[in-house]
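Quick one, tokens below:
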């Protein structure tokens, strides 16, 4: 499996390198497609707690989105929003604890992830899923978000704000601009492709890359937020968060860890307990 992925990446790198020499715009369009395509759909191991779940099939813009829920009659509902190349199975630790405490828990596989349909995913498609869930099940009292799921939930709350809904942001993708730069660096693409990709996003969405920024959004929403981030995160770097930490917004509690990186952080038992405690009170 790893060899297959390595070969795919080598091919992608060659294609992007060649097209970048011919046309920055052409390269940017191909790069954006790759940027929004999960190579992996998440672990196939199904934790036992999912055997007790009620399956959800949710149509969103003609695509079937698969998810799960527990304690459907509970008055307090929590939605889990996973990151890129992840899935709801990865959050079983939170689900087990929340279910025991009587929370209604909803965990969806985003488009192109897990058992959900689709090949690519962009932020408006993730937020469209939240909208359909809210229409069907009502407003959520809290969200547990990791990485890509974090910026998606923040964008959703900016548009359809429910100030009392608690947000747990675990290593959120704070700046989309940073993600684009890291993507181009990984594929050894020149700076002109970074600019071309940002221009491509503006052309398609009508918004500059700076719009897709949690740093911008948190200045506009008043939701209670628990923000958990690691000093050694090499995917969503802490430096993107430092400005917000210095400003000390009254509605945000920061918890900064060391040595957990980007993916281990949300699996840490201490973090799980801290998150559940925040949602409880």
């Amino acid at each position: 499996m790893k060899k297959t992925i390595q070969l795919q990446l080598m091919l992608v790198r060659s294609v992007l390198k060649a097209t970048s020499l011919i046309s920055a715009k052409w390269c940017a369009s191909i790069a954006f497609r790759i940027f929004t395509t999960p190579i992996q759909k998440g672990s196939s191991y199904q934790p036992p707690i999912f055997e007790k779940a009620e399956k959800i099939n949710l149509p969103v813009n003609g695509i079937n989105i698969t998810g799960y829920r527990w304690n459907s009659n509970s008055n307090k509902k929590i939605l889990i929003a996973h990151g890129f190349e992840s899935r709801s199975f990865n959050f079983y630790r939170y689900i087990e604890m929340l279910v025991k405490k009587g929370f209604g828990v909803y965990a969806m596989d985003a488009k192109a992830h897990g058992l959900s349909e689709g090949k690519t995913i962009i932020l408006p498609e993730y937020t469209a899923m939240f909208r359909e869930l809210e229409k069907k099940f009502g407003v959520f009292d809290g969200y547990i978000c990791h990485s890509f799921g974090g910026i998606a939930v923040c964008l959703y709350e900016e548009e359809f704000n429910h100030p009392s809904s608690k947000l747990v942001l675990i290593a959120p993708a704070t700046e989309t601009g940073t993600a684009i730069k890291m993507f181009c660096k990984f594929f050894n693409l020149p700076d002109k492709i970074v600019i071309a990709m940002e221009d491509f996003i503006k052309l398609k969405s009508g918004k500059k890359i700076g719009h897709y920024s949690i740093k911008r959004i948190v200045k506009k929403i008043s939701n209670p937020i628990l923000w958990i981030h690691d000093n050694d995160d090499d995917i969503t770097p802490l430096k993107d968060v430092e400005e917000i930490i210095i400003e000390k917004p009254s509605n945000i509690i920061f918890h900064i860890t060391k040595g957990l990186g980007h993916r281990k952080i949300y699996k840490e038992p201490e973090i799980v307990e801290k998150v559940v405690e925040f949602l409880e009170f």
